[in-house]
Amino acid sequence: MTFAIARGVPAAGTMMIGVAITLPAVAIFSILLRERLVWFVEGRSRLFEAITSSIEGLAGAALIALVIYEILLR
Asked: Which of the 8 DSSP states describes residue 50?
């Protein structure tokens, strides 16, 4: 991110603003709803594990698809 800003990439500034908004929002959300979050995770541990595994799998598949796309483009 710092390298992109130093090179004058305009999208990097927008991305930095998004990160600056998202990180504190998640922190505030987790602090305010800490008890509910613990209750949700403890009460539905199998569901939570299935959801997080699915998200990780989808992210991995997206990365693999992107790499294949980039390789085929060259």
From this structure: H
- pTM for this entry: 0.47
Count other C-beta atoms under 10 Å from residue 33's C-beta.
Answer: 12
> Could you tell me if 17 and 3 are in contact, meaning their C-beta atoms sit under 8 angstroms apart?
no
Backbone angles phi, psi at 53, to 5 degrees: -65, -40
Determine the residue type at 46.
R
Question: How close are the terminal C-alpha atoms of the chain, in Å?
Answer: 25
pLDDT tens track for 32-51: 888 887 887 888 888 888 99
> Token pair of 1, please?
């991110």
Class of residue 1 by CB neighbours under 10 A (exposed 0-12, middle 13-18, buried 19+): exposed
